[in-house]
Amino acid sequence: MQTPSPQPVERIAARFAGRWRQGYVRGKLRHDPAFATIAALLLQADARPVLDLGCGMGLLGQWLRECGHHGAYLGIDNDPRKLRAGRAAAAALRPALELRFGDLQALPEFSGHVVLLDALHYLARAPQQALLAACAQRLGAGDRLLIRSVLRDASWRYRITQAEELLAAASGWMRTGAHHIPTGAELSEHCAALGLRVSRQPLWGRTPFNSWLIVAWRAPA
After folding, report:
1. Whose CB has fewer CB within 10 Å in the chain, the N or C terminal residue?
2. Methyltransferase domain: which residues (predicted)?
């Protein structure tokens, strides 16, 4: 996989309007390890389509294009502001990125990899289980469900993450606060009940947040 150098990061940031948003994009791409880790996993697999749930401004799609992924990309989010910014920034990209307004509890027809970055805990427990089931239904042979989520535990990272979630909701950057933050065991059990095998690893990088990467795939029949 080709990891974007500072020049591609600058190219991505320059596609967005406004100095504040450009600065946000630069910081996110440079310091959040999720983009490089997830791109590596997807590009090792193949160029299968990617469904990015809770895509925000479509930064994962932009990163994938810079890394050489040419498969279809469909991002779903319920924040019109972020979608408008993402569509404008991606207007000249080829292959195109599709950024669509939608509800995570009513997924479109799809077959391929599914990515869920920092979105699961904004749902209550029952809708989380329904979403995981819908994601599992969209995985074909060799496809992966990649979830980056805060996990509930007794760590100092979890306490800092709780405070950050409250601040994000109060500032209006997030449209809602956290509803249910699962434990690692709980999330693994949900995936296993759907016939998926699961691995879990820390994905906080240099941040103080209690972020984890859960990789799930369908167990052979």
Report:
1. C
2. 50-139
Distance CA 60, CA 38 (A): 9
From CA 18, how far away is CA 171, in angstroms rounded?
19
pLDDT 10s digits, 50-75:
999 999 999 999 999 999 899 999 99
All domains of the chain in start order, with CATH: 33-218 (3.40.50.150)
Which 8-state DSSP code applies to residue 174? Answer: S
Q: Which two tokens stand for residue 67?
A: 């890394």
DSSP 172: T
- The DSSP secondary structure of 81-136, one letter per residue, reads HHHHHHHHHHTT-SSPPEEEE--TTSPPS--SEEEEES-GGGS-HHHHHHHHHHHH
Question: Which among 218, 184, 221, 178 has a CA at the least distance from the CA of 201?
Answer: 184
Report, as an integer, the average pLDDT of 191-216.
Answer: 92
Which of 32, 173, 25 is closest to 86 using CA atoms?
Answer: 25
Beta sheet of 98-101, edge-to-edge order: 98-101, 73-77, 50-53, 113-117, 145-150, 211-218, 196-202
% residues pLDDT > 70 (the chain): 91
Nearest to 63 by CA among 84, 82, 37, 85: 37
pLDDT tops 50 at residue 185: yes
Question: In this structure, are residues 77 and 83 in contact, taking their beta carbons and an 8 Å threshold?
Answer: yes
